[in-house]
Amino acid sequence: MQLPDSIPTPADIADAARRIAPHARRTPVLRSRSIEALAGCEIHFKCENLQRAGAFKFRGACNAVFSLSDEEAARGVVTQSSGNHGAAVALACRERGIAATVVVPRSAPRIKLRAIEAFGGRIVPCEVSQSARDAATREVLAETGASYVHPFNDTRVIAGQATATVELLDEVGHLDVVMAPVSGGGLMSGAALAAHYRDPAIRAIGTEPEKARDAHDSLLAGERITGRPTPTICDGLRAELGPLTFSILREHLETILLADEAPIIEAMRLIWERLKLVIEPSCAVPLAALLAHRERFAGLRVGMILSGGNVDLDALPWQADRD
Amino acid sequence: MQLPDSIPTPADIADAARRIAPHARRTPVLRSRSIEALAGCEIHFKCENLQRAGAFKFRGACNAVFSLSDEEAARGVVTQSSGNHGAAVALACRERGIAATVVVPRSAPRIKLRAIEAFGGRIVPCEVSQSARDAATREVLAETGASYVHPFNDTRVIAGQATATVELLDEVGHLDVVMAPVSGGGLMSGAALAAHYRDPAIRAIGTEPEKARDAHDSLLAGERITGRPTPTICDGLRAELGPLTFSILREHLETILLADEAPIIEAMRLIWERLKLVIEPSCAVPLAALLAHRERFAGLRVGMILSGGNVDLDALPWQADRD
């Protein structure tokens, strides 16, 4: 599982944009005056929940899959994911006409498995532990000779995610700040690099749930903190930084702001109500963090990546009883 | 309550587009490959749920309000509405800096009243009957000398609603069919006229819930049918055609297709799941009707207006027990 692990260059990101253009959507950028009045700043929402397969993940997966040589591609692609990345890889492989295998822990929700299958991905179930996932992945790699596409710690994936911020900046012009959620750090690494390459004065600010603050604490400690529980409602934000994303975020982030669970749910509902967009809880973390730190953003022009909209419509968080 | 009741001309619609451009959003047009695979045709969704105040209604209200002379405007605007039109008029009046009064039946849901108030509209409650609404409206008109803006049977309002279809056609080029829901008929009249003026070969197809099929039956009977109960979940589709919208739809509609309640709820959920858009039940009627009549649309390029997204997030229809 040797990974392409150099920091994406401006050329890598421009190549990614060209490579994914025939496949990915150029998602709209929306604003809400009532949310801006609450926030005290301009917010330009880049709607990656409207991306194919319902999340920004398709950009990175698509760039990785279409970066393969024909010979490599013919042997297929393998990944590990219990979430949006698995579906994104399956869809990207379908677009290229090659096989996708997704190693999925048995605990994964049925709804996520259905998405992978809907795009023609083969599911290999395994036990939940990381070592079990790695073993299952190695087995598939050995059997098939397929290429491995990591969900975030991969140059091609980060370059793909960066294209969302490139489009955002192309559309709205200057921004003071770009914000996104941080899980494994692929989206935020791409956003920070795209912003930095456009204008080093743009501030890149990551966001995490207070209950999954490993990236925040890793940056503070100067080393990756791993193995913590992540008891947050944000099922998309439970991964940990990889070596590559850690080094990019350490170099380029101003900070990581935290948000508590109840404000995350409130921000999620606010986006549903005012922007009329279906987003998943993870996707609401940047707005929750901004609203909890209004003074930091007063009067600024903020770009915010809405990361995804894959949520179980039968179990909305504001309808459950919560502590 | 003399209404401007001529059929909007191409010039009226072009004027409306210019008049509302500084205020209304140019909403995005989205597609979903999975919905198209289900439907067997191309569907270009014009996302008026993302319009200001959450519905296409802002276009017509804005055009009417900004059509007033300064002298007329100074005396304010009055309308009757228990739904999206009231909020749209309140917002349009706030944009122009004039007073809005909305006559609202006491039965209207709190959530709709809050939207009118949030935009600075004055609410005058009245009894539910149409005669009570008219009496309350006349009283306000007599007191204030304000201008009346009817929700649909008004040249200025129809010309405003038509701009949604103008934008849709500008963006996607040729369409075989344009579809929208029919309540009072303002949106569908505007869509049919905009399509006809662009290319008389474009087919205009209205849609209604089976449980509020008064417009369908009116076209069939050749005269307006009124006074029927409308026991549908689609709270935005309970109005009846006016003389102006009836005459436009009679001239320009190919037909009105009907949809049952359960398929409407399924179509609503499909749009939430696949397009990641919050829409209200009324807004799902065209997709439900299309899916119920697939053969009619096979292989065509369809434009569909998503009319609005104002829905109570605490009471989603697929979560309630229904017959």
From TrEMBL, chains A, B:
Keywords: Pyridoxal phosphate. Signal peptide: none annotated. The keyword Protease does not apply. Residues 21-308 form the Tryptophan synthase beta chain-like PALP domain. It holds the Pfam family PALP. InterPro entries: TrpB-like_PALP, TrpB-like_PALP_sf. Its cofactor is pyridoxal 5'-phosphate. Gene3D superfamilies: 3.40.50.1100. The keyword Metal-binding does not apply. It comes from the Bacteria. This is Pyridoxal-phosphate dependent enzyme. It comes from Pseudomarimonas salicorniae. The lineage of its organism: Bacteria, Pseudomonadati, Pseudomonadota, Gammaproteobacteria, Lysobacterales.
